[in-house]
Amino acid sequence: YKFVIKQVANAHNLAFDSIALQQHTDFTYLDPVPDVALFACIQNAESGGDSLWVDSFALAEELRRTDPVSFLTLATTPVLHQDLTDKWDMRAEHPTIELGGGEPSQPLLDRPIKRVYFNERTRDSWRQLAMGSLAATTGAFYDALRKFERMADNPDWHVNTPLKPGDVVLFDNARVMHSRNAFVGRRHMEGSYMPRDPIHTTWRARK
After folding, report:
1. What's the rounded Cα separation, in Å, for the pair 35 and 22?
2. Which one of 77, 96, 130, 168 is at 20 to 30 Å from 144 when CA atoms are compared?
């Protein structure tokens, strides 16, 4: 799957605007979600448009350490994500923090983090409520999500990489959240997404 991101008038998706974007993982409304993303910079903006990155596992581990109740809330609450247009209705439910398996006796709080699903542009708790699910509309859930969001918005966690034409970034969409600064001028990015298995099979074949 290949995508092109350029600023357009009356954008249906904020990615095609020039405003700053919040940290997020991509395609949270799919199941499965693409594992690996590749971004290529064709042209960067005259001003702004820096790419910003966050290790979402580090955020989640800090939340686990400082507020285990909120961590468990985000690990056990299914959240509806949707992308709706007049041509498609894509939807999927994921916990914000997905935990991996462990020993049957291992407490949930001690299990390893498998993936993070965080995208406030696709979360749709209102429709989730209309569908009869109260899980992602409780005060406890919003309090926990707000704590995680504040951490994601904190620039102390961000890595800033102003991309130049010809630069290519490959990153783990299960773990690395990304965003950008607001920009002025033309900005042209292209990229693609891929599952992890073909990468592993090709890597093993070339070893």
Report:
1. 20
2. 130
